[in-house]
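Priority: medium. Attachment 1 of 2:
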């Protein structure tokens, strides 16, 4: 059975059944068994708040037994353990399908999608580590600093200008 551990060390078992899937659909308007599985998986990756809500509904009996409400449940997830929780939910969803071929292609779809996202993250890190990016960012910062200095000097000069003194009433 799929599981994850929250930031407090609480272990949560993630098991889908007809009732929990029905509850998720009724309470959150998310059809975990939709024919558009790719959309369901995309939702789990992209809408973290909704995913935590789904996890709470699925784990509600355990949360009630532990005296944990939905707010506390959500506060106890983040970073690596949130990643672990999403993986547990997808594993439980994949395992729920009665057709082994569907289980196989849903798992493969999830693995390929997360693999592509991981590669995209690695490529973005490589881009950000590029010396040319660092030089351009430094140039932009220097330009902004120079422009700021010019604006301050211009503002100071306008305060001391004769036009500025004429428009300022004498006390």
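Attachment 2 of 2:
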């Amino acid at each position: 059975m799929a599981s994850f551990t929250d930031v407090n060390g609480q272990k949560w078992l993630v098991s889908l059944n007809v009732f929990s899937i029905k509850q998720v659909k009724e309470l959150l308007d998310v059809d975990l068994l939709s024919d558009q599985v790719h959309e369901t998986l995309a939702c789990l990756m992209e809408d973290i708040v909704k995913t935590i809500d789904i996890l709470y509904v699925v784990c509600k009996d355990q949360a009630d037994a532990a005296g944990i409400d939905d707010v506390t449940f959500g506060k106890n997830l983040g970073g690596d353990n949130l990643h672990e929780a999403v993986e547990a939910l997808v594993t439980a969803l994949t395992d729920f399908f009665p057709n082994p071929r569907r289980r196989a292609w849903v798992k493969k779809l999830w693995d390929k999608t997360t693999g592509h996202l991981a590669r995209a993250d690695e490529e973005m890190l490589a881009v950000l580590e590029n010396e040319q990016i660092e030089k351009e960012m430094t140039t932009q910062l220097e330009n902004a600093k120079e422009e700021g200095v010019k604006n301050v000097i211009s503002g100071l000069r306008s305060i001391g200008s004769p036009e500025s003194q004429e428009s300022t009433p004498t006390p």
